[in-house]
Amino acid sequence: MAEPARVRTAFPATVRHLVLVLGDQLDAHSSALAGFDVTQDVVWMAEVAEESTHVWSAKQRIAVFLSAMRHFAETLRTRGLPLFYVGLDEPGNLGSLALELDKAISQLKPAALVLTAPGDWRVLQSLRAVAKQHGLALDLRDDTHFFSTVREFSAHAEGRKQLRLEYWYRELRHKHGILMEGNAPTGGQWNFDADNREAFGKAGPQQVPQPTRFAPDAITQEVMALVNVRFASHPGSLKRFGWPVTRQQALQALQEFVDQRLPLFGRYEDAMWAGEAWLYHSHLSCALNLKLLNPREVVQAAEDAYRSGHAPLAAVEGFIRQILGWREYVRGIYWTQMPTYLERNALDARAALPAWYWTGQTDMACLKDAITQTLELGYAHHIQRLMVTGLYALLLGVKPQAVHAWYLSVYVDAVEWVELPNTLGMGQFGDGGLMASKPYVASGKYIQRMSNHCSLCRYDPAQSTGPTACPYTTLYWDFLMRHESVLKKNPRMAMQLKNLARLDAVAREAIATQAAAHRDAQI
């Protein structure tokens, strides 16, 4: 079989539009392709090393993008669209989107460029610069894979000192009539968290449905072989690769989540268990962010499950809030705050990211489990990200930009518009509270309550000092002490600071000493 990346289709003699399709825009009905004329337009796609090396991308992330791109290219060819596709291993590949676009423009001489708005500020600026260099108009179109536009979020944000999810979520529920009964929310309330977020208990998860995974086909196998050679030094492994890389696979994954896991999603959405990567989560964020799925069909499928009696309202509302609420919200934050958002560091955190974040070789059981799983699968669920890997980095005082680079590198669903606000804003409080109403800090007792990790660990979450003290607990109290003057201004931190006030000077000094020793040991 001919390698898809090297196939060339016939091009029009005169090119009206060169339609740019990026690796996270894999929808045959995207806004960039609206009005496409096969007699005078050409699609341009390029695999380039820079998109895997501007951060040290893990193998799973690289492979899912390349495989999905090549499968989408086959879809376009089947539809008869002229396609200019540059493969990563193609001779003469210049290594960046900007350089490859410049080369394509010189060859095809289009009258204009068309592009659906990218998910990455860096990419948009790069492509705009190429268009300007050639004196070409760039028709930048709205990404229709969202319920809202950035302009709508900007209007919502105008005049607000704090941008809270809840208000934006309710606005979108009203506007789109999702889980609504007239002007009132279904069930009489907007949020059902009180009915969700249970731990598994001592018995652990029982009869969890198998995740939807896909055996690599010929195209994916070619990609995996390429990644293992070209990016051999990059972190992670492809031995357990099984992500959906086509529209059909993504639809199957959606249906099986709704059928098998959605009913218990809410109850266990925050629970963790050693060795259990998948649990009741959807595993759809990668397909959504590649645009293999549209959020409207995902939300509709979930709401239909409630209306038919298949899934309880608490589970469905909790899931829909992640899509209709949080996903739209973080995109609005990103595009209204960039480019300066990337540099924010409200707590002046300066520590380096521990090297074992790239290997999982740590004696802290929860971190070892989450990081090892991440490197093997390119996946961890939101509590593992926020309250295990993210919490530790926050308590340790790691520079937010280093944490951001790690998250962008290792997760298959990581595109900067969604990853950066989640990491820097929500996880690391780097924006000083623009997103999160307080730093999400907790001691090791939170992890003990929500998982079985502590029973498998040599550290005791009840201890803040001594040889068996849990580093989370030590660093938690140290964090509160280091930032006490700033945190006093936040009413939501009152209870935690009240508990801090109970520590006498001797206890404080012991914690600070142990925290400093632990911090030094991570360098």
The residue fraction in helices comes out at 40-55%
Average pLDDT figure: 96
The CATH architecture of the largest domain is Orthogonal Bundle
Strand order in space, largest sheet: 3-2-1-4-5
Shape: globular
Sheet of most strands: 5 strands, parallel
> What is the number of independent domains?
3
Q: Quickly name the level 1 CATH class of the largest domain.
A: Mainly Alpha
* Global Rg: 24 Å
Total strand segments: 7
Your description of this structure?
The protein has 523 residues and is mainly alpha-helical. It folds into three domains: 4-141, HUPs (Rossmann fold, 3-Layer(aba) Sandwich); 150-209 and 261-337, Serine Threonine Protein Phosphatase 5, Tetratricopeptide repeat (Alpha Horseshoe); 355-521, DNA Cyclobutane Dipyrimidine Photolyase, subunit A, domain 3. It is built from 21 helices and seven strands. The strands form two sheets. It has a five-stranded parallel beta sheet, with helices on both faces. Strands 6-7 form a two-stranded antiparallel sheet. Helix 2 packs across helix 7 (218-230), helix 11 runs antiparallel to helix 12 (313-337) and helix 18 (471-482) packs across helix 21. The longest helix is centred in the middle third of the chain and has 25 residues, at 313-337. It is globular. The protein starts with 16 loop residues before the first strand and ends with a helix.
